[in-house]
Structure formats: C-alpha cells, structure tokens
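Protein Record: Sequence and Backbone Structure Tokens
======================================================
Scope: a single protein chain, as residues and as a discrete description of its fold.
Tokens: labelled as protein backbone structure tokens, with as many entries as the chain has residues.
Position: the record begins directly beneath this header, with no further notes in between.
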Amino acid sequence: MPIHYLIAVTGTPLPALTYQSDETLSPGVRVLVPIGTRVQVGLVLGLAEQTEASTYQIKAIIRVLDLQPVWTQSELALLDWCARYYHAPWGRVLETALPPKLRQSKPTKRPLKALTTPPLGTAQLVELNSEQAHCLTAIAASLGQFTAWLLQGVTGSGKTEVYAALIAQVLQKQQQALLLVPEIGLTGQMVARLTQRLGTTPVLLHSELTDNQRAQVWQLTQQGSPLLLIGTRSAIFAPLPNLGIIIVDEEHDNAYKQQDSIRYHARDIALMRAKYQHCPVVLGSATPSLETLANVAAGKYQQLALTQRANTQSLPSIQTIDMRQQALAGALSPQLIKAIAQTLDDGEQVLLFLNRRGYAPVLMCHDCGYTVDCPACEVPYTFHRHAPNLRCHHCGKVEHAPKACPHCGAQNWHLVGQGTQKVEETLSMHFPHTPVLRIDRDSSQGKDKLPQLLEQVRSGAARLILGTQMLAKGHDFAGIALVGIIDVDAALFARDFRALEKLAQLVVQVSGRTGRGDKAGRVLLQTHQPQHPFVQSLLKQSYSEIAQDLLKERAETHLPPFGHSAWLLAEGKDLHKVQQQLEQLTQQVTTAEIDIAGPMPAIMHKRQGYYRELLWLQAEKRNVLHSVIHQLQTALAQPNGLLSGVRVFLDIDPQDMP
C-alpha cells in the first residue's frame, strides 16, 4: 500500500500537500512532485494521515533527489517554527531557506565538484586579558547546552579574540561553528584573523557566491565534519548537523533583518536554532539592540562585558559643532575643515561619515522651485555626477537631467542638499594635495573593489576617507585620529520610533573607528540642534546609559521590546482600492487587546508606480498579536478577501517603517 507523505513544495504560496510513494522516505529529503501542470522540488516533512478512501486523487512523488536528508529533524523543527512565527506558507519558507540550485527541478548539467573539509591545523591563539579570559571561561562552560549570551564589548575591546578561542574549543570537540556577520564584504579582516588564529580556513556562505558555489558549501556543511562557517543572514539556514556554537557578530545590525519575502530576523532564528540544537549562542556588540538588553534584564540572556580596549587606549572624545549661522563650505563647517587640516598636517588619517550617497538629493529649478521627481515613486531623483545623472535610490530608475525646467522653461538648476559625491568635491577643493577616498555603494561596485578600498585605509595609503554606513561596521583602522559625522539631525525628528536607538548605535560605532592606534581619537558631530537633549546625551552618557533611558521611554509607551508589533502593507495602482483593502481588514478585528493604526501612507507612499498604505498592529501580549494576524490572513484567503490589483505584505517584529 502506498505511503502518504506531507510535502512542502518550493516556490508556491501553499501549505504542505499530501503525496504518495511506494518508498520509505526520511523527513528532510528532496523529491520531485507534480503541482498543477508543473514539476517542482518538494521537501518531505513526515508522514501524512493515511485514509482508507479519499475524495481526491493523491498524486505520486516522481523521483527522490537525495540519498540523505538535507536537514536534520531539529533543523526541520526550526523551519517549522519559522513558518508558524512569520505566518509564512511552507513553500515560501523553502524558497527562502534553500539555495537556488537545490530548488531547481531540472538536473544540473554537470555534477557539482564536491568541496573538501578544510583541514584542522594547530590553533595559534593570543593571550587574552583578564576580561576576555573571564568571558571565554563562562561561555565555554555552557558548550553542549542552550544558553544565550550577550557579549557587550566597547569598540576595539577584542571580541574577535574571544570568538576565536571559543571556536577553537568547538573544533577540538570535532563540532561545527557558525559565525554570522552583517555583510561579508566588510569582514575580510576578521576572516584573515580567524584563519590565522584557528589554523584552518573558514568556509564562507553569502549571496556573492555563484549558485554552484553555494550548493557546494551546503553539501560540505551537511556532512557534519568540524568546520567554521562564516556567513550573512541566509547562512542561518545552512545544514549544520553537528553544531556546537552560534556567534552573531554586531547583533544589533539591521542587515540581519530580511526586507522582502519572509521578513525574518537572522538573530532571532539563531536563538531558536541554538535552542533546538542544544548549543550556546553568543550575541556580540558594542551597542546591543534594546530587545537584547531587555532580554538580559528579564533574565533570559546572560551578559558579559569587555569594558577596556585591547590596546589599552582610551575611548575617543566626542564634541559637537554648532552649524547654526555658520558660513558653510558645502556641508562642512569651518571648525571641521580646520580639524581636518590639523589632523592631516600631523600625518594622521581622517574619516568623514555621511549616510547619503550621490551628489545631491534634489535637483530644483532656481526660478520656480520645480523638482525633478521619479515618476514611479513621486520622490525627487538623486543627482549624480556621472550620466545618466538622475537616479532613484528606491526603484533604480535612471534618467538624464533635463536642460530646461519642464515647468517654466528656465535653465537655472539648483542642487539642494549634499551627497557623498558633492562632499568629495568640496574636500578636493580644500585639500587639493590629499586625494579623497570615497567608499559608498557607488564607488565599491565590482568584484573585490570594496576589499581594495578598505585595504587603502588600513595600510595608511588613504588619509582622507569619506564614507557611508558601511564604514561603521567593525573595522580596525589603526591610523584614524579624527572622525567627523557630517549630519546627525535627520534622526532627531524621524517618524521611526527606533531612530534614536539607531542614531546612538551609529555614533558609537563610527566613533569606534578612531583611537585604535597610538593616540586617542576625537569625534566631531555637526548639528543644528546642539542643545537637543538626545545630542547632549550622546556627549555625556555611555551607550548603556542611553539605552536604559530609551528602554524607560519604550516601557511607558508599550513599544517594543515592551510590546509586540507587526505591520500589514497593501500596495496597488489604485489608491482607493488599497485603502479599502486595509479598511476591510480592520473591520475583522474584534478584540480590544490590540491597537491598530491606519490605514496610513507608508513613508515611501508610492514606489515603482504602486501606492503603498499601512496598518500598524501593536499588542502587549505576543499571542494576541499572532492570533489577530492569523485571523486577518484567514480573511484574505476567503473568496473576495483580497481585492483585485492589490497585494498585501506582512512584517512580524519590524525594524523599519516601510
């Protein structure tokens, strides 16, 4: 008698379906199954309920693709948790978790060349200071069981050396280690250091690998041999049957949050994975998220601290520059220009930070005030120096700037605001004998371009560096003596309730790039709001003190982490229909235990021709929030539940307003 199996079918917005086979199949193996007129890859989840008779014909599995399961039972349990927590159908979970090559129903033309496990050499660890040694001893004692650790270390305190010592112990036990990093292109220095310390080559997994390379890494990690896997957020789904530890470096970083499809948070999945696979998880950061600090206060996580820099240098001093009524050179104040000149004269490096790429945010007609907007998104184009010089940073559309104003015909264009390209031009005018190294998404495109730019900074070849947020993440630049943050004001009045938390993290992280060499560094913040209470707190308080104040404010307003939130985003080309869709959903909610705001315009109200409206849901109890979301999804699944031409997206525990 055929055996009935529950199969999750990739690439479909469907729950698990029932198929039959004469073979005995293990949960976790991939199979080919018919779905409609197509053939898709599916994953065996387990046995389906066997019935004597059925009202429909149960289709047969076409072929079994694997000799052994892709994931173990505990790893499958993690995927099941993802499907339930993020309210996602199994087909979408597999689409997110499996690499592209393993989702394809067509056989690979050439067999994949198997990777071999990097040999384990002799670890060459450095001697740890007393704080590092204490952290190592505490975490190492929890190997073999689930414990969540927060390793909070000031910038430059040597968290990587603690990571290396922990991973060395895991490898000695013939187990596997997983190290998550926000962006692989920014971690070359860490990879090199861990290779040297551990005597083995880490295996890397990230989106810049080819599909074949990613499939090869999966086949390697699936074997269970001892190794260190370093990867970005999607690496959290890699098969690691012999997992001994998970480390999430820079756990506060927003890059761990997926921004499309299933909007999962890799840090949160790492915690659940460690629980399912009975191993410790280490969350490392100089500026932990408020969620993590709240879990420490609640006793769910254990906290360890590194309070001193490994080189015994003091932390940099932070000062503000009052931009009011200043005769500015572009976006630069006279005081900042003077500080740059002095630092360069002393033979040291300068890092300037501006989180706005391009030349200028707005191209405006000086005669009538007309702005050149992206027609699909209805926001101003960003002007770039190189043609086509009008670019929408939201949908990617590019155009050439018009010679004359379409509104009044004048040819008197005015550039409003400052992007990194404009600031680079200003710096070149003031310091013609010192080349400016600009590091942003535009300048770092191309294979190996970013590592080459970063090496110029580390080697000291570049002395005047201008960059965006990518320079705030964990780099060890020994020669930087001055950091200038060109604009901190935007975050002070942002609509996002997380804006001040992110600003504090950014200032501390950017500041941490200075003072790592022989001299103490200094940080200058340009602001038009020098007396703003939060700006003053950045000058006078540590990050931990600022975080505690923010936590008190969140508690008073029941905002996360003291409440639980989600948003539903509806988009379509008919604004009335989009609003109608969300209004119909709000009528489905009958409980008073949840607050609903909206429908309201998303921050990006129109994108690529689609209007976007938002429902914000917030509840004190997590189960209430999830119950309401299930109720709304059930309503959408009913006939006429989803209006024609409208799409609805869900984000659980959102980190940004859309």
